[in-house]
Automatic annotation (TrEMBL):
The protein's enzyme class: lyase
SUPFAM superfamilies: GHMP Kinase, C-terminal domain, Ribosomal protein S5 domain 2-like
Organism: Enterococcus asini ATCC 700915
Occurrences of domain Diphosphomevalonate decarboxylase-like N-terminal (ranges): 8-163
Protein's UniProt keywords contain Nuclease: no
Keywords: ATP-binding, Lipid biosynthesis, Lipid metabolism, Lyase, Nucleotide-binding
EC number assigned by the record: 4.1.1.33
Gene Ontology biological process: isopentenyl diphosphate biosynthetic process, mevalonate pathway
Gene3D superfamilies with a match to the protein in the record: 3.30.230.10, GHMP kinase, C-terminal domain
InterPro entries on file: GHMP_kinase_C_sf, Mev_decarb, Mev_diP_decarb, MVD-like_N, Mvd1_C, Ribosomal_Su5_D2-typ_SF, Ribsml_uS5_D2-typ_fold_subgr
Protein name as annotated: diphosphomevalonate decarboxylase
Sequence ranges assigned to domain Mvd1 C-terminal in this UniProt record: 178-310
GO cellular component labels: cytosol
Amino acid sequence: MYKGSARAYTNIALIKYWGKKNEELILPMNNSLSLTLDAFYTETSVTFEPNQTADHFVLDGVVQDEKATKKISRFLDLAREKAQVNWGAVVESRNFVPTAAGLASSASGLAALATASNAALNLGLDDRGLSRLARRGSGSACRSLFPGFVEWEQGEDDETSFAQQIPSNDWEQDLAMLFVLINDQQKDVSSRDGMRRTVATSSFYPGWLASVPTDLAHAKSAIATQDFTALGEVTEANGLKMHATTLGAVPPFTYWSPDSLVAMNLVRQLRQIGLECYFTMDAGPNVKVLCQRKDEDALKQALSQHFAPERLILAHAGYGATVI
């Protein structure tokens, strides 16, 4: 029997990943940049046993259906191939984050599974190798292996597509992110399906893709110089451009809800009165608000006038994936 357990935290992309150029290898169309956070995480254990003939996947105490288990099995096959082991496995995972609601549960989930599998099978993968393995389960999972600011290199093949931490002199410790939970239910259009439809049909997608390298350069410069205004502005603009591409898809769709727009407008109003904050959104209705740590209490108090306190979750810079 081989067993390993791990914890990994979610990350929120400041410069978005949206679209794949290789579905099988999960190679993205563009580089992305994220911040790993401490509010949401996944703990996963994986046990490989010689008498286990099939994989079993239990999420939050519920045995998962064939579709969900098949995705996990495909990922475990990659680890089994590296270890030259053909044993079945039992995967038990608990999400301390709503699943499939645009809060990056797949990132923390697959980063935790990759880390647990590496430990269980004694694969001995280094950071880059583990990042490449996690990427094959969920693209953004390769970023959740690392703390702080992380860049995912799009690469051209399996060897060259991986994530790595960006030096920041711990500036991320001065920042905070407030999650406005508009809806923690499973979304209608999955990230995977949304990306595929957008890349294939959106007339706005080429413009989005062409703008990302400039946005990425501005974000990295802002981190290097610890310029919060510059980082906030490019984060907000990049997120809005990404979401605009879904409106040009066929058929069009959006992840926004009416309350998403309320939250975004409130952030703009707060900026106008001197509380500097910026919003971003992933593939879901929930709004994430980037601010400086010194302003987090004022931001939360202001937003609590419009959203119930239990819908506001404060996060700070998080940790890399760890064996537990």
